[in-house]
Amino acid sequence: MKQIIGLILFFLSSMVQGKLLLYSDGVFIGCLDCIATVRDSVCNTDGRYGNPSDPKSIWNPNGLYGSPLSSKSPWSGSSSGPMMTDENGTVFGWFQINPQGGYTNSEKLNDLYQGMNGDLAKIRDAFCQD
Prior knowledge:
Elements: H1 2-15, E1 21-24, E2 27-31, E3 83-85, E4 91-94, H2 106-115, H3 120-127
Antiparallel strand pairs: 1-2, 1-3, 3-4
Helix pairs in contact: 1-2
């Protein structure tokens, strides 16, 4: 499991200069590769985007951006989950578990999702480990 997470983060960091940001329909939903102490990080449980209770968190299974039933969520299997951009607006694909969406690591993300039985708390802990 650590190898899958390591590969995902390696490929993400090698693609982007600066921050990798998530947007859904123009709505900012967090910084994907920021460390957990950064306010906007999806790994900051004290911040809006890393808090599993917040409506704008990809870790909220009942929220628009975290529910597996919402096409705005990376966990839905939709081919149009949250868009990944850098700070200049360059698009790097869609952060989601469906390989048809153009994100090269969707299959690895799906393996993580399936391996954790869709438990977003466990996925978050694995994804955000230091």
